[in-house]
Amino acid sequence: DAGVIQSPRHEVTEMGQEVTLRCKPISGHNSLFWYRQTMMRGLELLIYFNNNVPIDDSGMPEDRFSAKMPNASFSTLKIQPSEPRDSAVYFCASSPRRGGEQFFGPGTRLTVL
Amino acid sequence: DAKTTQPNSMESNEEEPVHLPCNHSTISGTDYIHWYRQLPSQGPEYVIHGLTSNVNNRMASLAIAEDRKSSTLILHRATLRDAAVYYCILREVRGDFGNEKLTFGTGTRLTIIP
């Protein structure tokens, strides 16, 4: 099992550019989570999906952020336009069942200049 | 959300047991106690979880107080690879759909001394 796959692993972009982060959950898992980690705010849940449906997006910081899960094997987190304060490590996690343990990917380190 | 309180940091000698405490005095009856850890430059990793009874798995043991207002994660024999930030988290389960949120605090940074 390859685990949760995230791409890219590192992204450096300039302010104002669109950024798309990608996640492939573990096959058979029906919940998917997007987190953001910074030194100042720690690890924060942005949004999570259950059976491809967004359940709670209250952690999404503002309209510049959007997330989609078009099918059970793929999700994206998009930031448009990006700002320097979006610099962080973004983690994707998946879970095999409601309330089950979450399996985290290696993260995408985003730097917005 | 019910909150947890953990020491900011702890040290332990290699090959000795480690007891990581967590206070959660406002825990509700349906809150599970989860522990995750995050090794340097990696994503968090599930360690263990429980509701009322003590739990054991290959990684650790979880001791839950009778009133559930505190718990302790026990690493029976710490190795250098156990150096990480350990998070104690209450997971709320609400309604039919349930709320799967995990709210991470600042955790305890565990240092293992060779």
Short précis:
With 113 residues, chain A is an all-beta fold.
Explained architecture:
The complex is a heterodimer of chains A (113) and B (114). With 113 residues, chain A is an all-beta fold. In chain A, 0% of the residues lie in helices and 55% in strands. Chain A contains no helices and 11 strands. Chain A has strands at residues 5-7, 10-13, 19-24, 31-38, 42-50, 53-56, 65-71, 74-79, 88-95, 103-104, 108-112. In chain A, the strands form 2 sheets. In chain A, strands 2, 4, 5, 6, 9, 10 and 11 form a 7-stranded mixed beta sheet that branches. In chain A, a hairpin with a 2-residue loop joins strand 7 (65-71) and strand 8. The radius of gyration of chain A is 13 Å and the shape is globular. Chain A starts with a strand and ends with a strand. Chain B has 114 residues and is an all-beta fold. Chain B contains no helices and 9 strands. Chain B has strands at residues 9-13, 18-23, 32-38, 45-50, 55-56, 61-64, 70-75, 84-91, 108-113. In chain B, strands 1-9-8-3-4 form a 5-stranded mixed beta sheet, with no helix packed on it. In chain B, strands 2-7-6-5 form a 4-stranded antiparallel beta sheet, with no helix packed on it. The chains are: A mainly beta (113), B mainly beta (114). The A-B interface holds A 4, 31, 33, 35, 42-45, 48, 50, 55-56, 91, 93, 95, 98-99, 101-107 and B 32, 34, 36, 38, 42-46, 49, 87, 91, 93, 97-106.
